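cron nightly-structures :: item 1 of 1
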Amino acid sequence: MKKTSTHFEPQLWKGGKKRAGLQLMENFFRFNELAASKEKLNSIMNYAVKRNSWIKEDPSVVFQFHQAVRSFVRAGYLIHLEGKKWVADTAVENPSPLFLGLLSEKEYHNPLLVFKKAFKEYSVKEFDYFMSGIVYFSMGAYDKLPETNLVNPYIHLLKMLDAAHLILERRGR
């Protein structure tokens, strides 16, 4: 008798066909707007560090967002790897502070720097661990706070969202 097992991992990465990082990012932003994604990530982060409180949102929505961000991080890693082949648009005018978001002017002119910096400091597994941790702590009331540093990966994720949106916006011109 053949033993079958059910895998609950998303089938996004399975198969022989490699997907481009930009295509995965386009898919992420097709289903998740930039402002809504940043707001949802902020909400999950706030509830993760609050004691004796949990997020009021439907757990299935939070889990779907968790899976989408995991896919986004992997797409960012692919962009980071392909970054040497991809040339950034350097003929961009000086931005106003409203357009910068969390990005510095240097990062605004070359958004690939955001991904290089993030994946130099943290691996894909560490970003997965961060996302799993904040989702876990936001879904229930706990006396203890998370043991790891949550601020740095959070800031890197926000910056990666801004940079990815900027890359896709410039690519669409």
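cron nightly-structures :: done
The longest helix spans residues 59-82.
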